[in-house]
Specification:
Layout (H helix, E strand, L loop, with lengths): L11 H36 L28 H26 L6 H16 L18 E3 L5 H11 L4 H4 L33 H18 L10 E6 L6 H4 L2 H6 L5 E7 L14 H11 L3 E5 L6 H6 L4 H8 L2 H7 L4 H9 L7 H7 L3 H9 L7 H13 L5 E6 L24 H11 L23 H12 L20 H7 L6 E2 L1 H12 L9 E5 L11 H5 L1 E2 L19 E2 L5 E2 L4 H12 L1 H4 L5 E7 L4 H13 L5 E5 L18 H5 L5 E4 L4 H16 L7 E5 L5 E2 L8 H6 L2 E4 L10 E6 L3 H16 L2 E6 L3 H16 L7 H6 L6 E4 L18 E4 L10 H8 L3 H14 L5 H10 L5
Parallel strand pairs: 1-2, 2-3, 3-5, 4-5, 7-10, 7-11, 8-9, 11-12, 12-14, 13-14, 17-18, 17-19, 19-20
Antiparallel strand pairs: 6-15, 16-18
Helix pairs in contact: 2-3, 2-4, 2-17, 2-18, 3-16, 6-22, 13-15, 19-26, 22-24, 28-32, 32-33
GO molecular function, one term: pyruvate dehydrogenase (acetyl-transferring) activity
Function: Component of the pyruvate dehydrogenase (PDH) complex, that catalyzes the overall conversion of pyruvate to acetyl-CoA and CO(2).
Pfam family, one: PDH_E1_M
Length: 893
């Protein structure tokens, strides 16, 4: 049966004739010849404009024949010398660091990929000349450098005069403040690196969304990014990471032809072959083609050209295709006899393959298998890159084959352990010098420490380097911040929340959405807000933004929305403002990162807010938040439907009681758990000032908001400082007798309401006075305290804010939140009073809010009993009172 049997056939005899022709081709030409004919026919059909599904896999050959390579635009001899100097200094830098301090580092990755980078730097990668000039554009290209290749980038910057020998010698020695980070870390070297990539898998994901965000800026009329290209350099082993391929379909679907992946296929990962029994190049080709990408394979060097021309039977191409990668790695280290027997002799004496190999000398065999890869020949790399940048309508991946550890000697090249090998011996450096033909005398290699080498500041090589980079718009990679501060928005939206909600009950999630909706209308900064939502906008009450702001789609809206006759219809637009990413927190955070760093990447400050189901933020994508901090991102991250007990009925998988603990580990995250709408207004306004004002800081704000509706009170006078610092007294005990036991209830988020109820129970039922404090940020209180501790070690007299705020407050302190106890416990060491906390430790569960809170012991009644127990430990109430309270409130087992 055939799927096509469902369709009527107007001429069955014609189909029969084609089948007979195919059978005849197989009978007289053989399977290889027939496959060749069919591929030729499919190529012709594609070029004729016929709408046929593409082949997912092509022969194991270069996509671009040597005869079709464009003329090389540079001075090959000069560029070879430059690449040789760079190779040398990269190896020397890592070796010297290990000789001195055993600091590690990677040599084999850059050694295999040197020409992949050098060809780009000389002829393709645009710099940022003109960034900040409205008439000049100047964003340049965005380069996602493979993390383990960083020594080569430093070595090139040294040749350019951007780094000194002293700085190279401080590779991986950052404590003094002037060293070079191990990998691309913008936070550690912000004038050079733009994108952190060494947490493998995040680079390719981020690169796709960066290319997409470039289009977003252009389509919204904020920045002309038409001349910017995103280049992502990846390892074939890195493609095992799920994040590496998670967004391939997005790039294909949205036809991001401003994006190029370059995958260095040296067939090895950290411990051994990437696909020992298979072919990683063919696997990746099928994966990318299926996702709608243009695929360019650059596999073989020119030494193979003559053999392919003699391969009239197609046996060589077939043999290369069938050899698994681990075996081919063995070929790269084998002697000529082994190659004759195991490769060319695989089909027996007298076979076409055997005959083809018989005419090859030993040196030719070694050149073929040890050196002749397309990735080591600038002409072939250039041809692949040229084809990539000229392709329209789809992103391009260049699959380039190299030898891992190339030029580092037989002890490194294609060896399983080469990723862990951190230095060369003096003998190996001499061999490398001879291979690269560098003018370094033996006397310079006689010492204990291998020297750096430089052709001279005024040498032809240095002049060529600077001329080429000047022609391409300046140095790269480079990070440059020229964005101007944003004007403060109108105070009116903030003041509206300061007044409270009157008699209306609203959740803090809705308060935040209302605030941002008004801020998006601001004449000066409204268009710079970038709402990012992972398919939960309706959950968060954001559908009111659909028709006014629109959802971004590069295709616009090509259909009639089903709710088009409703006021809040689903409106997609090419200039839409909302990035509604579907069910992908990783993709949404990659979006957020691109927007949060646009102030540096494009010289355009954007104000992203990423709102998500609280549980699925930090827990799922904490690694990306760390990369966001490394990339110095700015914006607002909103954990909506927060708390372990506030999400009714959702249960273990949805109940977030720990994201603030995870967020506290990220030094760039300014975390708040606001209880009231006015707290949100104060925090957001301060965030805009700190991140987008004249003294902009490289931080981002994390706010948790709740879906529990409550009356929102007006802001107490003088509360702003305490809100921002993390603690203020919200409601004192009313009319308590002087002799009444007294305590302090500290709470954050929705738990403030439980504390207020507990305050009433304590007063009405037990004659206990309790002051209620709102603690919008346990984490900021702790950070302030740690800073004061550090100052005290230097002899400075600084007292933590939390200590000052609670100083002299009578009675013990009881802290409560909808988070695990470790969240408020962060501040316990700096509280002079006796400390007790209650929280939601453990897994969440499905039930009503009331039942869940009783289960965890955080409802108002449980807080009341905990407060009485704290007083009983001090002898201020009788132990029987605690037991009586537990019985009265039904808390006994």
């Amino acid at each position: 049966m055939s799927q096509l049997d469902q369709l009527p056939d107007n001429d069955p005899s014609e189909v029969a004739e084609w089948r007979e022709s195919l059978d005849s081709a197989v009978r007289f030409g053989g399977a290889d010849r027939t496959t060749y004919l069919l591929r030729r026919l499919l190529e012709h059909a594609e070029r004729s404009g016929l709408d046929l599904p593409p082949l997912l896999e092509t022969p194991y050959l270069n996509t671009i024949p040597t005869s079709a390579e464009p003329e090389y635009p540079g001075d090959e001899e000069m560029e070879a010398r430059i690449t040789a100097w760079t190779r040398w200094n990269a190896a020397a830098m890592v070796t010297r660091g290990n000789q001195r301090a055993g600091l590690g580092g990677h040599m084999a990755t850059y050694a295999s990929a040197a020409w992949l980078y050098e060809t780009g730097f000389q002829h393709f990668f645009r710099g940022k000349a003109g960034l900040g000039d409205p008439a000049g554009g100047g964003s340049g290209d965005q380069l996602y450098i493979q993390g383990h290749a960083s020594p080569g980038i430093y070595a090139r910057a040294f040749l350019e005069g951007r780094l000194t020998e002293g700085q190279l010698d401080r590779f991986r020695q950052e404590a003094a403040g002037d060293g070079l980070p191990s990998y691309p870390h913008p936070r550690r070297l912000p004038w050079l690196w733009e994108f952190p990539t060494v947490s493998m898998g995040l680079g390719p994901l981020s690169a796709i969304y960066q290319a997409r965000f470039n289009r977003y800026l252009e389509h919204r009329g904020i920045k002309d990014t038409s001349q910017s290209r995103v280049w992502a350099f990846l390892g074939d082993g890195e493609m095992d990471e799920p994040e590496s391929t998670a967004a391939l379909a997005l790039a294909g679907r949205e036809r991001l032809d401003n994006l190029t992946f370059v995958i260095n296929c040296n067939l090895q990962r950290l411990d051994g072959p990437v696909r020992p029994n298979f072919k990683i190049v063919q696997e990746l080709e099928a994966q990318f083609r299926a996702a709608g990408w243009n695929v360019i394979k650059a596999l073989w060097g020119t030494a193979w050209d003559k053999l392919f021309a003699q391969d009239t039977e197609g046996t060589l191409a077939r043999r290369l295709r069938e050899v698994p990668d681990a075996q081919f790695q063995t070929y790269a280290t084998a002697d000529p006899a082994y190659l004759r027997t195991h490769f060319f002799g695989a089909e027996g004496p007298g076979s076409p393959l055997h005959t083809l190999g018989a005419g090859l000398g030993d040196d030719q065999l070694l050149e073929l298998f040890r050196a002749s890869r397309a990735g080591h020949e600038p002409r072939k790399v250039h041809a692949a890159y040229r084809a990539a940048v000229e392709h329209r309508g789809a992103p391009t991946v260049v699959l380039v084959q190299t030898v891992k550890g190339y030029t580092l000697g037989p002890g490194f090249e294609s060896r399983n352990a080469n990723h862990q090998m951190k230095k060369l011996t003096g003998k190996e450096f001499r061999a490398m010098r001879d291979l690269l033909d560098l003018p370094i005398p033996d006397s310079a290699l006689d010492g204990d420490m291998v020297p750096y080498a430089h052709p001279g500041e005024n040498s032809p090589e240095a002049r060529y380097l600077h001329e080429r980079r000047a022609a391409l718009g300046g140095p790269a990679p480079a990070r440059k911040v020229v964005a101007k501060p944003l004007p403060e928005p109108s105070a009116k939206p903030f003041e509206a929340l300061h007044k409270g909600s009157g008699s209306q009950e609203i959740a803090t999630t809705m308060a935040f959405v209302r605030l941002v909706k008004e801020l998006m209308r601001d004449e000066e900064t409204g268009r710079r807000w970038v709402p990012v939502v992972p398919d939960e906008a309706r959950t968060f009450g954001m559908e009111s933004l659909f028709p006014s702001a629109g959802l971004y789609s590069p295709a616009g809206q090509t259909y009639d929305p089903v709710d088009r006759d409703q006021l809040l219809y689903y409106k997609e637009a090419k200039d839409g403002q909302i990035l509604n990413e579907g069910i992908t927190e990783a993709g949404s955070l990659a979006d957020f990162t691109a927007a949060a760093t646009s102030y540096a990447t494009h010289g355009e400050s954007m104000i992203p807010f990423y709102i998500f189901y609280s549980m699925f933020g930090w827990q799922r994508t904490a690694d990306q938040f760390w990369a966001l901090a490394d990339q110095l991102g700015r914006g607002f991250v909103i954990g909506a439907t927060a708390g372990r007990t506030t999400m009714t009925g959702e249960g273990l998988q949805h109940a977030d009681g720990h994201s603030h603990l995870i967020a506290s580990t990220n030094p760039a995250a300014i975390s708040y758990d606001p209880a009231f709408a006015y707290e949100i207004a104060v925090i957001v306004r301060d965030g805009l000032r700190r991140m987008y004002g004249p003294d902009a800081e490289d931080v981002f704000y994390y706010l948790t908001v709740y879906n529990e509706t409550k009356i929102q009170p007006p802001m107490p006078e003088g509360a702003e400082e305490g809100i921002l610092k993390g603690l203020y007294r919200f409601k004192e005990a009313a009319d308590a007798p002087a002799e009444a036991p007294r305590l302090q209830l500290l709470a954050s988020g929705t738990a403030v309401h439980w504390a207020l109820d507990a305050q009433r129970f304590l007063a009405d039922d037990w004659d206990v006075a309790a002051d209620v404090w709102s603690a919008p940020s346990w984490t900021e209180l702790r950070r302030d305290a740690l800073s004061c501790d550090a100052a005290q070690l230097k002899g400075e007299d600084q007292i933590p804010y939390v200590t000052q705020a609670l100083h002299g407050a009578p009675g013990p302190v009881v802290a409560v939140s909808d988070w695990m106890r470790a969240v408020p416990d962060q501040i316990a060491p700096w509280v002079e009073q006796d400390w007790t906390s209650v929280g939601t430790d453990g897994f969440g569960l499905s039930d009503t809010r009331e039942a869940a809170r009783r289960h965890f012991g955080v409802d108002a009644e449980s807080v009341t009993v905990a407060a009485l127990a704290a007083l009983a430990r001090r002898g201020e109430v009788k132990p029987e009172t605690v037991r009586e309270a537990a019985r009265r409130y039904g808390l006994e087992d």
